[in-house]
Amino acid sequence: MESVQALRQYFETGATQSYTFRLAQLEKLKASVQQHEVDIFEALHKDLRKSKEECWITENGFFLSEIGVAIKQLKSWMQPKKVTTNLLNFPSKSYIVPEPLGVTLIISPWNYPFQLLLTPLIGAIAAGNCVVLKPSELAPATAAVIKKIIESTFDKNYILYVEGDGATVVPELMNNFVFDHVFYTGSTAVGKIIYSLAAKNLVPVTLELGGKSPCVVTANAHIDIAAKRIAMPKFSNAGQMCVAPDYILVHRSVKDALIDALKKNIQSFFGDNPQQSDYYGRIINAKQFDRLCQYLQDGKILMGGQFDHTDLYIAPTLIEITDLNKGIMQDEIFGPILPIITYDDDAAALKIIAQHKNPLAMYVFTNNTTEEQQWIKAVPFGGGCINNASLHLTNHRLPFGGRGASGLGNYHGRFSFDTFSHKKAIMKTPNWLDLALKYPPYTGKLSLFKKAIK
Ligand code: NAD
């Protein structure tokens, strides 16, 4: 843990605090990511068979867009914010100063192994922190490129890159060093471990977790567009996306039309044999592959269902589900298998959604604005879309995060800066006025207090 102690010492010198320092680090990181573009493409292809285009939208391009916002906005984010003062404290002035938290730990998963480690880092640097970065061990090619980027860009007393098996490395880090914040992205099960490790020392956490995100297609939806907008994110990265539509609830009156439109669009995206498509990914490893293949027995296959173990390939699959007790409707799927469940009335659909409380995302497809609002209000969830799926996370002006079992806290754009900052509240009171009224004895003052404090 000596190496992490060095971050504490470095942080305490105050070196990370100035605007010029923070800006320079963001610019260096941006340039390094740009320089390593080809390495990043190759690594993500190796780990997950991602195409360059998909990498750009969801990994390095996404990262560059976020860091561009941070570089542009940093000065204004760092400004103390004046707020009005209550009457009792007249003539004081009040303001909020964003301050770095200190030494932070960022832990990421394997599905967007580049972006999910480095996007939180933007917020941590912008807010003036030192950082320990812990990537997923399950996307090794991408981890190797990130290591190269980080170690060639930053001093290890400022940003420290630590690899290894999460179950060993993370408890070792968190039991031997009191971090000022832990930012974790990954499964809900491991999120609970992180939360309890942090609780021992009252370390604040951000938890970006998963869950079963429902996608409702009502009788009033534009079916062709809905099918296209669902199929794209569901089968991007072979469905290994935290905000992918996990399952579809479709109104009986439009079920057949939706299934036809989904089939047509999947075929047009990936051709007759998606295994040959340059734009269709692979499952990360055999363990995930075997878990996913079991779900193929949980309903009636409407399209796809083929798999190839040697290539970690599972075809984009539509599966009709009638038995909600099957595994496919118990766990987060996190793969290219899309269950379709028919509903007749909204109450029945809401009951199904309620079996997995607080999903990370929810999507509603309808052309009826009253209906759209009813669905959005009826379900507590992290964030979502109306007549779209998953793309809300690409708007940096929206906070991205879950609630309850799907997470705690949020980030992206300005929200990342806020997540990695403490908001220090300051009131400054001048000396030219000091009303005796405020001080004891309070005899006869209650009615005045009642006027001033209400
Ligand atoms: P995971 O929880 O297995 O691993 C995530 C990280 O935790 C890795 O760095 C890993 O090394 C570490 N880790 C693993 N076991 C640990 C342990 N016992 N103690 C401490 N650390 C440990 O998650 P995953 O399988 O890599 O990712 C898939 C999950 O992540 C899905 O549930 C998905 O929904 C979720 N996810 C959420 C988001 C989001 O933004 N909300 C984004 C991507 C993925």
UniProtKB/TrEMBL annotation:
SUPFAM superfamilies from the UniProt entry: ALDH-like
Domain Aldehyde dehydrogenase, first and last residues per copy: 5-425
Keyword Oxidoreductase in record: yes
Record keywords: Oxidoreductase
Coiled coil regions in record: none
InterPro entries: Ald_DH/histidinol_DH, Ald_DH_C, Ald_DH_CS_CYS, Ald_DH_CS_GLU, Ald_DH_N, Aldehyde_DH_dom, Aldehyde_DH_NAD(P)
Catalytic residues (positions): 208
Source species, domain of life: Bacteria
PANTHER family to which the protein is assigned, alphabetical: ALDEHYDE DEHYDROGENASE, ALDEHYDE DEHYDROGENASE TYPE III, ISOFORM Q
Family: Belongs to the aldehyde dehydrogenase family.
Protein's name according to its UniProt entry: Aldehyde dehydrogenase
